[in-house]
Amino acid sequence: MRPVVVAGAGSIGSLLAAHLARVADVTVLTRREEHAAALRERGLRVSGRGDFTARLDATAQAAALPADAELAILACKSTDLEPLAARLEGTLPRATVMTIQNGLGAEEIVAAHGDWPLLSGVTFMSGTRHGDTHVEYVLDTATWIGPYRRTSEADARRVAELIAAGGLKAEAFPDLRPAQWSKLVFNATVNGVAALTGLPHDFHFAQTEEQSDLGHLVRDLVDEGKAVAAAAGVELHDDPWEMNVLATRRGHRHFPSMLEDVEARRPTEVELINGALVREAERHGVPVPLQTALYRLVKAREASYSA
Amino acid sequence: MRICVVGCGAVGSLFAANLSLLDDVEVWAFDLDERHVAAINRDGLRLSGAGEVVGRPRATSDAGEVPPCEFGIVATKAMHTGPAIAATAHAFAEGCVATVQNGLGNEETIAEHVEHVIRGTTFPAGRLLEPGHVQWDVKGDTTLGPYDERTPLAEVERLADACTRAGMPTLAVEDARGPQWRKVIFNASTNPIGALTGLTHGRVCERPDLRALVTGLVDEGKAVAAAQGIELDADPEELIDHAARPEVAYDHKASMLQDVEARRPTEVDYLNGGIVRFGREHGVATPLNAAIQALVKGVEASWTQS
Fold it and tell me: Residue B181 maps to which CATH number?
């Protein structure tokens, strides 16, 4: 089987590692040694939409990663990407490296630490971690992959096929930016509003009956994001407003990660999501007063953790 | 002269206790908090802090007990104006009713129930420590003016004179919208930012990016005021910077932040919501105020989840 590395074992990393371990030789890179030891001893259990326990290798030492790995998926949160990429410097000589972080700019962060061929990924699936060796597979939506540096659509397709063979949904695209930007605009809006209001992504986000209903603000924020995408020359793959309406109609209440982060008083992904969108707007001269306000408010909310 | 304070929370208590010290004024205090009412009738209404006062207003939770009054002073939270004035309106059939509340629209609500309405804005502040006892945090001026031509300025002057003699410096003016809008713009541009971020007033102001957002909100409010021909009595920006000083209110948690932390309904509909409403009526766009109102309403909606 092909040697594959999954770096980062949060919910997305754990879902990828466990499923890939059915069709590839997976090594997980963790931050903590006891996490790696637990994975080696007990394997990684998947519940929810799956029900199996994957056997895989794990290490907390980047230098101990298999030198023959062909693929490395960096599945940490965007806030942890810079230190992770730094740890990987000089390792994985034969690997194609794939980012899967929210927002924009993950590829550039990784590119600064090595000359690996790079693939871009965005994922719409979701899971909940129930400890170091158990992840619940919640939303079985797809992961989308496209070429970024010295890679082709065919490379993206091979990785998508491998992920699909493991039992997850994946699709390859010739250019990932339309999908990446759709998710960027969606995430900047939904995560930011959820983090500030404390509301899970529910019906309020699409409600537009009263003048002060949240749906008006969500639509205005999405419209600003669409204007930035247009100015950047990106034709969106999906309309983020439609994505929002569909997601709120699914009936269950999804807690966006930025909301969970502020409730736990952790650093959020605001820089690579809202910050990235606002910086793109500046670069292209598009006024985005509402997205700017949202970005500043979430940054200030993070600042409030230190009283 | 008989005056009834409607809503005897912190600000209402400042008026009720001080006015009750005057020999020529009989003060009634209407409040739904029966423990507060009982404590006032038993031990008097005590103020500590910026002034030490024990007043003896007659307090009641039964609006039917309030006799005919020459003046009313409404000091409830803005969302309670309607029920409070509906219950007490009978006492003001011949009198004038002043609002010293936060926000926009209180005068209109009161005018649905009584004929003579006085627009007012007050800066003193305090907080209820326990039933019958209010901490007087800051002294400050009050401005009163006729809501419309039905209210004679002479009556406004009579009430202002009583308040001033009682130690609550009060000015009677023809058009009280300037101070009202200055305070509304100040509150609407700073309170919700504190409420959404958890930061004190000083910390909001020392972050240049947030301070710029505050100015964006202030500018919308100023444009709406200007479109109505309202001349602000001073620039709200000065008040904002003044309050941010360490010796003034750097560490102050805006009342809306306190409301959000205690999961109480906020006054956002009467602050940012009021600016949005008047903006729409006068053709002035207020996207930032609308966004802030929607976010704070979202915070309130989140409490009924889970």
Answer: 1.10.1040.10
